[in-house]
Structure of Non-haem dioxygenase N-terminal domain-containing protein:
Amino acid sequence: MARNSNSNAPPCNAHTAPAPDQQQRRRQAECMRRLPTIPVIDLARLRAPAERAAALAELDAACRDYGFFQVVGHGVGGGGGAMLDVARRFFDLPFGERARYMSPDIRAAVRYGTSFNQLNDGVLCWQDFLKLVCDDLDAVVPSWPDAPADLRCARRLLL
């Protein structure tokens, strides 16, 4: 089909608008530019007397303005994944082994339990927990569960 040279219309194959996926990418990029960034709080600054007041002011502003923030400089090692693995394996133990650590004493150094109360809770509120006191590791680690075998060794991940 030939184009009429007297016509002001663009040729049939002319493309005047960006493809929909290009328009969508441009809109997304524009939205991302307008989004606020998540506040980053460096806890190491709290240990520096000259920076402490400014770091606390940033923390206060993050809590008030956003309600959440990212923490860096906390000094916690990268062993969180290994600790979670040990915890998962504890909860995979047969109930009888876990039940040895059940206690009604909320101050117990080691306490296994569940928040599920069949009279009051729906299943959505159910959580099992293992509380391990960590404030004096040398004193409390011997009372920690002996299974999984590497749970007590996981203390080095906390240092």
Summary: Residues 1-7, 9-15 have pLDDT under 50 and may be disordered. The helical segments are 20-34, 49-65, 80-91, 95-99, 137-140. The first strand starts at residue 40 and ends at 42. The CA atoms of residues 120 and 126 lie 11 Å apart.
